[in-house]
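4.2 Preliminary Data

To establish feasibility before requesting continued support, the project team ran the inverse folding procedure on a target of 899 residues. The structure was first converted into the token representation described in Section 3, and no sequence information of any kind was made available to the design step. The complete token record follows.
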């Protein structure tokens, strides 16, 4: 193993490539991102100070054995000799000293890693040499004291105070305010003080031998890879431990050698807006640290054109070349030493969501990248960020610092909201509508009769429930930011306040909720609100998405206005209209209740006849909004008790009325209570709902089907192209379909004939019960389409209650690694996913043209969308506000799995 190459010189990139087999990703793996890019800049003939890179393999060997692998140190020294040759300077030579920096550089940039050590090579002798050579003793001694300080803290692990305390004390004694007040003589004294501090703390002297400095610094970088900060960062970012870090030893160039020197950082495009204009700062007569530390005010990069026109022009040429070369926006560091420009780093620059989209689209237009590359450069999260208000990151940091962050829950519906707290739907609605307040509605959980308050609210917070709870589903559908299951929040509806960790928040007080992250803050945070009409680049990107996607994106929408929004966001159909939501409207609910409580078929029919025109109008609105596109309407699904008043409350009313002898209306109330009690089930989610309810009480769905087809026929007559698809929920056996579907089809046919129009339609079912998935081949004999209701399918497959699991054991399951993620948010591919794959396969054996979609909450989750692409869905359906995100995710899935 002696001839193993551990060190690569600046001009040995080809050797590194040959060693890893040519792939750039592997070169980065071997030399780290910084080392690989520095070498690449050398290859394209940009001015980079001579350097060498110690490989990540050396780091791994060191981590494994606790010592330098054989040959490493010798190779470092040889490389050093080559650098001496290239620079004409000598490491440790007082008459012409070579100084180097030592920088860690892993494959992925890691802010938790070791900082840089600058000025390695300075000692009591070379500092004198530097002073003479530069004719600037102050500069030389300042560099030396910085070396001892950085070396002491980074390499020797001394706390910062070891140096900061004596420095402050010294300045105070002298009456200085800033470091720049220190004179050469002061700095000489400080060097002595710092050296003594090292000796006192470590029991040995600051190493005078430059080679020893180099060796210890290399070792410190290796050690930092397994340091706590780095490990924590890797855990958070999912970076594996076995990558190791490289170490870059780079010739020092000085931006602080006078007024023809300087240093700066720049982005080739504006990282905040994406504008194609260089963005950055520089300082004359300064070192990198000074720019970052903000001690002096930096100048905008364009001003360099006045200060140093030649260097500026060279810099502009270089950055253009770099951007073309990497085909991405670059983030660069440079230093000018006595008029000579040096590049110290380049990497793909971090950018805001806005900038990411603009840069991707612009670069396609400039011919720099392909549309597919552009699509892969934007994340679904970034698209989402552009569609919802957000809190300022700075504000959030400050809030965490000041203790205003009070709770977190499930990030149920993205976007940020600020408002005054109200604890019931009526008050929330009144405050919003009449008082024009911004309202956050806070409830333990929500029910269908809370919807008016939820719609009026800017944001919703619940202490119970999970990602598919009523609050979450409704909030997502209407685009209201929402956090659910914030279990730390204790709500007292009586005293109209909530308590979090002893902090009392009364009705009317301000809070801020972040539905994107699930965080809740006390008080008002600043909101940034994106303007959708101006998102032309996003629209372009999404059009390109549709060109490459195989999956279509449809939307879950109950009302025409949601359908219109979905369509404007690019939805190609309605994948789920939950018809029962319409039953909750104030003028309809009493009719629905009468219908449920009817004791004779005549009574029931009378109530249903009243509901029919309402439903017909609902559906007509949807067909018009979706002219030309398919609309899937689901027949009634939930258990009937959901439409009834709260049993406990009603009972209390009755008891009170009896006690007070108030008999008026009592009989009706008692009848209602008896009705509610008759509907009681121990396990309603697994009880009388879905298709079971349709079979038990077919009149409701018969009315619904009539309403759907009358509406469709009327619209068709007006010239609207209608494509209704009737969806039967919660099927478990094909016999259920055999019982109900022909009856409904007869109604459809009769209406179409009555009205004398023609249009195509489908009858299909949801796959929400494992048995349905397993027997999909049979089910497809009747069902003309499948739609995976993965909310219920997940509930039934795991046996976890979708309403309760997330507020108790599920969080612990995820924390303990028992589940990799919340299966109600991201589809469980191994379990639920296998059932889906089976259902698609079996279903299409029976009916090759079977249309397959998904309408559970997973339909808007990028990872789940990828899975839907893989199993061969035709479309995913999600809330209107998720449509753009889903379009990008569908495109990315197609690109990623292109054959
Ligand atoms: C589902 O179960 O995934 C579904 C879409 O139906 P719901 O959420 O209305 O039960
Ligand atoms: Mg369902």
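Position-by-position output of the design step:
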């Amino acid at each position: 193993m002696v001839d193993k190459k551990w060190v690569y010189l600046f001009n040995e990139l080809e050797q590194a490539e040959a060693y890893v087999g040519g792939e750039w990703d592997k070169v980065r793996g071997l030399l780290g991102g910084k080392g690989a890019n520095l070498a690449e800049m050398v290859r394209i003939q940009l001015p980079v100070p001579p350097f060498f890179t110690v490989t990540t393999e050396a780091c791994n060997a060191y981590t494994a054995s606790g010592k330098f692998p054989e040959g490493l140190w010798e190779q470092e020294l040889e490389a050093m000799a080559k650098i001496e040759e290239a620079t004409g300077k000598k490491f440790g030579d007082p008459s012409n000293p070579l100084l180097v920096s030592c920088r860690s550089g892993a494959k992925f940039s890691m802010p938790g890693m070791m900082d840089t050590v600058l000025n390695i090579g300075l000692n009591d002798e070379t500092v004198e040499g530097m002073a003479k050579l530069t004719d600037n003793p102050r500069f030389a001694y300042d560099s030396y004291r910085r070396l001892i300080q950085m070396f002491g803290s980074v390499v020797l692990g001394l706390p910062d105070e070891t140096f900061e305390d004596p420095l402050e004390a010294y300045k105070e004694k002298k009456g200085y305010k800033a470091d720049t007040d220190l004179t050469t003589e002061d700095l000489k004294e400080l060097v002595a003080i710092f050296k003594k501090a090292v000796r006192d703390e470590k029991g040995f002297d600051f190493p005078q031998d430059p080679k020893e400095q180099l060796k210890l610094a290399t070792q410190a970088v290796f050690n930092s890879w397994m340091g706590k900060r780095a490990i924590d960062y890797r855990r958070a970012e999912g970076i594996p431990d076995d990558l190791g870090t490289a170490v870059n030893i780079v010739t020092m160039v000085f931006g602080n050698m006078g007024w023809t020197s300087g240093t700066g950082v720049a982005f080739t495009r504006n990282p905040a807006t994406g504008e194609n204009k260089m963005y950055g700062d520089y300082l004359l007569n300064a070192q990198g640290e000074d720019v970052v530390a903000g001690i002096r005010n930096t100048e905008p990069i364009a001003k360099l054109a006045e200060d140093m026109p030649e260097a500026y022009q060279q810099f502009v040429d270089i950055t253009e070349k770099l951007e073309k070369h990497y085909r991405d926006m670059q983030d660069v560091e440079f230093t000018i030493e006595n008029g000579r420009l040096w590049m110290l780093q380049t990497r793909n620059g971090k950018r805001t969501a806005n900038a990411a989209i603009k840069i991707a689209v612009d670069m396609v237009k400039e011919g720099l990248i392909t549309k597919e590359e552009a699509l892969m450069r934007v994340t679904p999260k970034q698209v989402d960020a552009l569609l919802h208000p957000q809190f300022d990151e700075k504000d959030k940091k400050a809030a965490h610092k000041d203790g205003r962050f009070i709770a977190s829950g499930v990030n149920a519906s993205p976007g940020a909201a600020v408002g005054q707290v109200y604890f019931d739907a009526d008050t929330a609605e009144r405050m919003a509508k009449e008082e024009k307040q911004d309202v956050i509605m806070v409830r333990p959980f929500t029910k269908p009769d809370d919807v008016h308050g939820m719609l009026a609210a800017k944001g919703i917070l619940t202490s119970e429930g999970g990602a598919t709870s009523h609050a979450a589903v409704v909030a997502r559908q209407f685009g209201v930011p929402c956090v659910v299951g914030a279990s730390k929040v204790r709500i007292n509806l009586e005293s109209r306040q909530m308590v979090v960790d002893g902090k009392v928040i009364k009705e009317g007080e301000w809070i801020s909720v972040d539905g994107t992250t699930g965080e809740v803050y006390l008080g008002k945070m600043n909101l940034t609100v994106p303007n959708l009409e101006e998102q032309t680049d996003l629209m372009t990107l999404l059009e390109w998405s549709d060109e490459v996607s195989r999956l279509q994106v449809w939307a879950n929408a109950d009302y025409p206005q949601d359908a219109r929004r979905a369509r404007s966001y690019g939805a190609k159909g309605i994948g789920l209209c939950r018809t029962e939501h319409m039953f909750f409207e104030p003028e309809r609910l009493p009719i629905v209740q009468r219908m449920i409580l009817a004791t004779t078929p005549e009574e029931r029919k009378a109530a249903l006849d009243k509901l029919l025109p309402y439903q017909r109008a609902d559906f007509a609105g949807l067909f018009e909004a979706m002219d030309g596109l398919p609309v899937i309407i689901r027949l009634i699904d939930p258990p009937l008790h959901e439409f009834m008043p709260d049993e406990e409350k009603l009972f209390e009313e009755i008891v009170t009325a009896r006690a007070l002898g108030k008999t008026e209306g009592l009989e009706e109330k008692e009848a209602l209570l008896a009705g509610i009690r008759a509907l009681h089930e121990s396990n309603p989610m697994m009880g009388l709902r879905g298709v079971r309810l349709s079979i038990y009480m077919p009149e409701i769905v018969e009315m619904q089907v009539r309403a759907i087809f009358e509406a469709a026929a009327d619209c068709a007559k007006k010239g609207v192209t209608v494509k209704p698809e009737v969806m039967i929920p919660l099927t478990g056996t094909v016999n259920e379909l055999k019982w109900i579907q022909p009856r409904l089809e007869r109604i459809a046919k009769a209406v179409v004939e009555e009205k004398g129009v023609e249009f195509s339609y489908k009858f299909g079912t949801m796959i929400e019960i494992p048995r349905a998935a397993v027997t999909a081949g049979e089910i497809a004999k009747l069902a003309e389409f499948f739609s995976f209701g993965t909310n219920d399918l997940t509930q039934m497959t795991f046996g976890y209650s979708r309403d309760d699991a997330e507020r108790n054991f599920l969080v612990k399951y995820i924390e303990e690694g028992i589940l990799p993620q919340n299966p109600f948010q991201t589809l469980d591919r191994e379990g639920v996913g296998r059932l889906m794959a089976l259902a698609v396969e079996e279903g299409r054996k029976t009916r090759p043209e079977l249309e397959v979609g998904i309408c559970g909450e997973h339909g808007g989750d990028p990872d789940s969308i990828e899975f839907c692409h893989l199993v061969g869905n035709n479309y995913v359906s999600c809330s209107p506000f998720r449509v753009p995100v889903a379009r990008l995710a569908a495109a990315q899935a197609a690109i990623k799995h292109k054959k």
